Amino acid sequence: MVKAEERVEHNSESAVFDLTSYLKQRKSLVEEALDRSLPVSKPEKIYEAMRYSLLAGGKRLRPILCLATCELAGGTIAMAMPTACALEMIHTMSLIHDDLPAMDNDDYRRGKLTNHKVYGEDIAILAGDGLLAYAFEYVAAATQNVPPQQVVKVLARLGRTVSAAGLVGGQVLDLESEGKTDIAAETLTLIHTLKTGALLETAVVSGAILAGAGAEDVAKLSRYAQKIGLAFQIVDDILDITATKEELGKTAGKDLEAQKVTYPSLWGIEESKAQAQELVDGAIAELESYGELAEPLRAIAQYIVSRKN
Amino acid sequence: MVKAEERVEHNSESAVFDLTSYLKQRKSLVEEALDRSLPVSKPEKIYEAMRYSLLAGGKRLRPILCLATCELAGGTIAMAMPTACALEMIHTMSLIHDDLPAMDNDDYRRGKLTNHKVYGEDIAILAGDGLLAYAFEYVAAATQNVPPQQVVKVLARLGRTVSAAGLVGGQVLDLESEGKTDIAAETLTLIHTLKTGALLETAVVSGAILAGAGAEDVAKLSRYAQKIGLAFQIVDDILDITATKEELGKTAGKDLEAQKVTYPSLWGIEESKAQAQELVDGAIAELESYGELAEPLRAIAQYIVSRKN
């Protein structure tokens, strides 16, 4: 764990770095790129369904992280933008499929009706499939000024992140744990690592790979990502209890109602908060060697524990 | 259309080339590679569901075509095998999702219960997602001795083939045409081009790209593939009427029962057979410059019209 003095120092650095403006500007860049990435074509219905969920807002944290690490490692925003968009396509696909009646059966997402409630189950399944496939096409076809072996590396990681060794495996474990009240913290962490952490880690690492980062930097950034990924999930569990539906843009208190095992249910809210803070401090410690260049990544880590939705 | 004398000549060449042994040997190579490509890991259930459909047999025509064009263009079987496996993962994924209750609602496929009938809808959706993602990972991570820019090209094509510009778009048009009895031949062909033709074309073309084939060869092989792809679909429609359930390994007469517009319903059986033969002759004509090297591709084209299932 990072010592208190260091934390204060980072906090004061973060105060200098204007994260709100940074996130707003980056989010706007990403939204524009996403809009351009998927123009409507025939058959219109499926493109509209894909765009409905892809352009439904959200924090765009994965693309923003990808762009940030690409810059940190000496690359440009342009080099990483197709991958940044692909990360959001993959994330959106996982939300569309998770919300289906055969899965979590959710009616609302980000304050809007879920994809299958608007377009029907058949189109929602296909919209997810289409987004997933297009994510790979887009990275392979639209990435420019990056050596092709680095593009291949990123595509391999993206694939692994969605596969049974990542998102899909995590969702299976999550479905299996439903209704069980004896889930251990280790199992909960494994589910979240696969379902949420893996994609965050790939977001962070792929930006660095595109910029040509070496193994040591990739390893440091991986550890940073693993820590903020888990902190993110702990905070999500806390917010499900403490935030309102308006703040979340989705049904609050859902975990409690479903008697789902969460970090607060295992550790209590205070201890969960402390664990999240410790992870974020650890994540920030991984960035020490980068100096000011890593300011966005430090501020994002702090934001993850302080966010209200 | 190719003249009758030429057709006879090709037929006699095919008699010299032992297609049955060739397909048997290649199918066995592909089956072994598929089995090795996806070992069971945790969570076992999802790997078992993926393997259940991936290893359920079938003609393995797409991987066999990919290996054949890679060899034709001067490459090796080893260079193309990961892509060959990926093509079958993608094909399998599209079958699993098409069979879902929200889509075509099929109980049997290749004489076995469909994936969701065995594992449930949730796992079937995830097994499809997992196979799709893994297909890209496998090509990116397992392809060896191929320049990375060629691997990137293949990945871009694979993505496009599944996306809303390919399989997914075709399935949407297919769902939209359900119950309609006024579908024109052009619409029917567009649906099949997207749903079936695109993946066959990618199978053929990706083998050549991996081997480093130039634009002219890729164009010739694309036309070959488009023609056999459409012929394949016409023959499928004919077999749905003329073959038995035992021959097909799936419900026969389904199109008639669903009052689906098919080539035989538009053109009659005899004209449909003639059109399929004309396409196959045209496909074979594209291969003229390759001499004996293209013998497998010629024999496969002939097989497509003469097959019984």
UniProtKB/TrEMBL annotation, chains A, B:
It is an enzyme of class 2 (transferase). Its cofactor is Mg(2+). CDD domains: Trans_IPPS_HT (cd00685). GO terms for biological process: terpenoid biosynthetic process. One of its GO terms (molecular function) is metal ion binding. InterPro entries: GGPPSyn_CRT-like, Isoprenoid_synthase_dom_sf, Polyprenyl_synt, Polyprenyl_synt_CS, Prenyl_diphosphate_synthase. GO terms for cellular component: cytoplasm. Transmembrane segments: none annotated. Belongs to the FPP/GGPP synthase family. This is dimethylallyltranstransferase. It comes from Gomphosphaeria aponina SAG 52.96 = DSM 107014. The lineage of its organism: Bacteria, Bacillati, Cyanobacteriota, Cyanophyceae, Oscillatoriophycideae.
